[in-house]
Design a protein that fits this description.
With about 425 residues, the protein is of the alpha/beta class. It folds into 2 domains: about 220 residues, UDP-n-acetylglucosamine1-carboxyvinyl-transferase, Chain (Alpha-beta prism), CATH 3.65.10.10; about 210 residues, Enolpyruvate transferase domain (UDP-n-acetylglucosamine1-carboxyvinyl-transferase, Chain), CATH 3.65.10.10. Helix content is about 30%, strand content about 25%. The strands form 7 sheets. It has a 4-stranded mixed beta sheet with strand order 23-24-1-25. Strands 2-17-19-18 form a 4-stranded mixed beta sheet. A hairpin with a 2-residue loop joins strand 4 and strand 5. Helix 2 runs parallel beside helix 3, helix 8 packs parallel to helix 10 and helix 10 runs parallel beside helix 12. The longest helix has 13 residues. The relative contact order is 0.15.
């Protein structure tokens, strides 16, 4: 379905975006690995997470929905042999974490996904898991392939990329490996797996290498736990961005996850001059949570440090849109990971911004945007999304503040991460409708 976004009134109100996708995936997977029942409140019910729920069932867990965003997972303490292919749809998180978890058991599982996921690199998890003793059929480094697990040995693995998916795959495999498993990465990626493993009773701590702390896990049995899923900061970013760039806006976002390793986007907004305040912090599951108040702001271009990239890798598309409405140049570097997401997001954002009249240039690991100021973005383009949900949402937000409407060619994939996005934004005053 094509959607059109048109400039209109301010973005106002109080809202709670969907539950955090990263935590939702992990709650289902750890619940399936644990003995006993895991009760999850606030689960994101997008397609990516529902694929993980189906996979948990395929590996032997009893997964049930008992209310809106409320689920239970009754695990048996291990993964069983799946009867059919484990289809991860469009979700790289589901694929990489489930592959890592499955290698810990003497089972064989065939993993597959949609055409987009089949193009995404899996060697980044195949390499360390193979070092631990897992076997992969066919020599392929992309899906589909068969994984053979069991009899793993712990390793010290220096990951060439800062990736929570790689880290999580290795740590989950390490739960059933002989000895200890340590994961070292260039910059610290989001730590939801480490935090949640502690909640489920795993033997996990940190060790120092090269002057920094890195996670270490030992063989562990997990016990079911109660998990609360706060609002996703990556989803919140779209509403917050709209409030910043649409004049006279004021928005309160309730119950947002404010894990410091997920706040790179909001740290960058602060440097750009955003009027944003975090309130009412609390910490019910080992993850910090707060309300966020955002008001329309006069913004300036910035150059965030490349080391910040892992903490805002999913927010670069919407950051590019915010930068288009700022004064001056924004230079984004250290984000080569964007080239292997659901699409090559660097190319997609540069092409889309140019189509909307914004001066944008591609870098090998990022992009440069010459901000046009709060009233300088023309818009008026029809954007090809290539099935990328974050690209689609980003350009719909751009259309809310541009001089001319913006149309995205497809919106159905948005439900993978933000079910009901258009209705959510309309309730806050956005003019988004079928095109």
């Amino acid at each position: 379905m094509r959607l059109r976004a048109h400039a209109g009134g301010p973005i106002r109100g109080r809202a709670r975006p969907p539950g955090d996708k990263s935590i939702s995936h992990r709650a289902l997977i750890l619940g399936a690995l644990a003995s006993g029942t895991t009760k999850i409140e606030g689960l994101l019910e997008g397609d990516d997470v529902l694929r993980t729920a189906a996979a948990a069932r395929a590996f032997g867990a009893n997964v049930e929905r008992y209310g809106e965003n409320s689920w239970t997972v009754a695990g048996t303490g291990r993964f069983a042999q799946p009867r059919d292919t484990v289809d991860c749809g469009n979700s790289g998180t589901a694929a990489r974490l489930l592959i890592g978890a499955a290698t810990g058991y003497p089972i064989s599982a065939r993993f597959d996904g949609d055409s987009s996921l089949r193009r995404r690199p899996m060697n980044r998890v195949i390499a360390p898991l193979s070092q631990m003793g897992a076997r992969f059929d066919s020599g392929r480094t992309t899906l589909p392939f068969i994984v053979h697990g069991g009899r793993l040995t712990g390793i010290v693995y220096r990951s060439p990329v800062s990736s929570a998916q790689v880290k999580s795959a290795v740590l989950l495999a390490g739960l059933n490996a002989e000895g200890e498993t340590i994961l070292i990465e260039p910059e610290r990626s989001r730590d939801h797996t480490e935090r949640m493993l502690q909640v489920f009773g795993a033997a996990i701590d940190e060790v120092e290498f090269d002057g920094a702390n890195h996670p270490r896990v030992r063989p562990s049995t997990l016990t079911g736990a109660a998990i609360y899923v706060p609002a996703d900061p990556s989803s919140t970013a779209f509403a917050a961005a709209a409030a910043l760039i649409v004049p006279k806006s004021e928005l309160r976002i309730a119950d947002m996850l404010v894990n410091p390793l997920r706040l790179g986007f909001f740290d960058t907004l602060a440097e750009m001059g955003a009027d944003q305040v975090f309130e009412q912090r609390n910490d019910p599951i080992g993850e910090p949570i707060a309300d966020l108040v955002v008001r329309s702001s006069k913004l300036k271009g910035v150059s965030p440090p490349p080391r910040r990239s892992p903490s805002m890798i999913d927010e670069f598309p919407i950051l590019s849109v915010v930068a288009a409405f700022a004064e001056g140049e924004t230079r984004i570097e250290g984000a080569a990971e964007l080239r292997v997401k659901e699409s090559d997001r660097i190319i997609m954002m540069v092409e889309g911004l140019r189509a909307c009249g914004v001066n944008a240039e591609e870098l090998p690991d990022g992009l440069v945007i010459q901000g046009a100021g709060p009233k300088g973005v023309r818009g008026g383009a029809s954007i090809r999304t290539h099935g990328d949900h974050r690209v689609a949402m980003s350009f719909l937000v751009l259309g809310l503040a541009a001089r001319e409407p913006v149309v995205v060619d497809d919106s159905e994939m948005i439900d993978t991460s933000f079910p009901g996005f258009a209705a959510f934004m309309r309730a806050l005053g956005a003019d988004i409708a079928e095109a």
